[in-house]
Every structure is written in C-alpha cells, then in structure tokens.
Write a structure and sequence with these properties.
Shape: globular
Strand content: 15-25%
Strand order of the largest sheet: 8-1-2-9-10
Radius of gyration: 27 Å
Distance between the termini: 98 Å
Mean pLDDT: 83
Order of helices and strands: HEEEEHHEEEEHHEEHH
Low-confidence stretches: 235-274
Largest sheet: 5 strands, antiparallel
Number of strands: 10
Helix content: 25-40%
Length: about 290
C-alpha cells in the first residue's frame, strides 16, 4: 500500500494562494473611487451582458474580478441574503458590513477547505450613508480577509500600477466628473504608456446619495460617459489641426498635398475630367 506524499500546511496554503492570485491577476482591474456624492466603480469591460459591477440592495453595490461564474454565484447569494433580511426585519437592517462578513466567512471556508479549489475572485462591497462620512467600502480577498478602504481602491489586473496612479492623483470630496476622469485615466495607465479607453469598453456604475429614489445604484451609459469625460482623445477630422493634415485636402497655399496622387484631384469644387480609378470620362446623370 503506497503512502500519500506529505505536504506541510504552510506549503499547502501558499500553493492555494498562488493559484488564486494568478487567476485574479489575469483579469482587468476594477477601480472604486469615493467622491462627494457617493461611490463610483469603473472597469474596462467590453461585454454589455456580463457585468462586474451590480446592485445588491438599496444603498449597497457589489463589484468583483476573477472567474465570472464564481463571483456571480456570490452576487446571487448576497442578493438573496439581503432580500430575506430586509423582508424579515427592515430595509435599514441590511448593511454592507453584514454582507462583507458573510462573504468573508464563505470565502475563508472555501479557501481553507481541502476538498475544493479556492475561489479565484476578489470583491468590493460598498454602502453609502446619508453623508460622505457614512460611506463604507470593503475589499475582500480570495482567502476571506476583509479590508476597510478609504478614498479609493483597486483590485485585479495590474493593481499595483493602477493603485500608484490613484495615490498620486486622488483628491478627496471631488465631483462625479473628476472621479470618473481619475478612474478611467488610472485604468488606461501602464508602465510604458497611457491608453485612451473607448467609452463603449467601459463599465461604470455609481451609488449616488442625491437620487430621490430609495435605490441609489445607477449605471452610466456611453452617452453620459462622453458628456462627463469630454474630449480626451487625439485630434479628429472635425478639428482644424486634423483637417489641415488630412490626406486629399488642399493646404492654405492652394497646392495639393501630393501632385502624384490622383485622389487629390477630386478635392475642391471643380469636378474631375476623368475618373481617377478607371480613367473613363464622367457619365452625366439621367434626365
């Protein structure tokens, strides 16, 4: 009868932690930023159906990175727990701290269990109060540890690089537009260059205490994001600088950009004498 290999508990926990960290690091980062009127979540997520940020209850939001099926199960369990507690007691009895503790117990039990692999997820649980001083932001790791964050937080992906950018540029009690610009800029920041992330590839949601409805969760659609972010990309064809340098246009001195390029002959008000592609004379339209 063969004897199983002995693995020390320290080595077993280290291997499980490395496994979970690698899975989480393969995803894209999620940023949480507190501003004057609430908490903003932002992530680079081209999918319009698989959300990383969701609503749990009236004043509570949930964000996650890692394996979608695993954190989606956690989200559904959190919604059920919040609904049952709010129905049995009162809606004000549903708190972000209680949900964070429940998630911590679940993640800790799964991580320490030898019968299944650890969850490759990290979570944000946020709750807004009546004032900015009452806002709460909790970060939960794969092994069930809970951290109370203040101001800003980031998880998943290149968290160290994104977190360093947030630390340098974060301003307390800023506006929604300022918080959004900071979050998007931090997501596009890398060690080598800064990317401009299209608004269609952004998933942004907020907990806004100024909303009159009991439910404070709100998703920001691309049109609203464009309005808040403004012009943050390079010059386009509608800019004067871009029009001066666009191929096929006539500069201010009146000479074409490239006399050898037949496509330059079609710019201006004078119609071409012949088709620049086929060389045939133009055909008059039917009467």
């Amino acid at each position: 009868m063969s004897m199983p290999f002995y693995v020390s508990p320290e080595q077993l926990m280290k291997d499980r932690a490395d496994f979970a960290r690698k899975g989480i690091g393969r995803g894209r980062s999620v940023v949480a930023v507190q501003y004057a009127d609430g908490v903003l979540f932002a992530s680079e997520n081209p999918s319009q159906a698989l959300h990383k940020v969701s609503e749990i209850y009236d004043r509570i939001a949930f964000a996650a990175v890692g394996r979608y099926n695993e954190f989606e199960n956690l989200r559904i369990a959190g919604v059920r727990l919040a609904d049952m507690r709010g129905y049995a007691y009162d809606r004000r009895d549903v708190t972000g701290r209680a949900l964070a503790n429940a998630y911590a117990q679940t993640l800790g039990t799964i991580f320490s269990s030898g019968g299944e692999k650890p969850y490759e997820v990290e979570l944000f649980v946020a709750e807004i109060g009546d004032t900015a001083a009452g806002d709460q932001l909790y970060r939960l790791t794969y092994d069930g540890q809970v951290a109370d964050e203040h101001g800003y937080a980031v998880m998943g992906g290149a968290a160290d690089v994104v977190g360093g950018y947030l630390k340098e540029h974060y301003v307390e009690a800023g506006s929604l537009a300022d918080a959004l610009r900071l979050a998007v800029a931090s997501l596009g920041h890398t060690a080598s260059e800064d990317r401009v992330i299209p608004t269609d590839d952004l998933e942004v949601a907020i907990l806004d205490r100024t909303r009159t409805q009991p439910r404070k969760f709100l998703r920001l659609r691309p049109a609203r994001l464009d309005e808040l972010l403004g012009d943050r990309g390079p010059a386009t064809a509608s800019d004067p600088a871009a029009e001066d340098s666009a191929p096929g246009t006539v500069p201010s001195d009146g000479s074409p950009d490239d006399p050898t390029d037949p496509t330059d002959q079609i710019s201006g008000d004078v119609p071409p004498l012949e088709d620049p592609i086929t060389g045939e004379p133009p055909v008059a339209p039917p009467a």
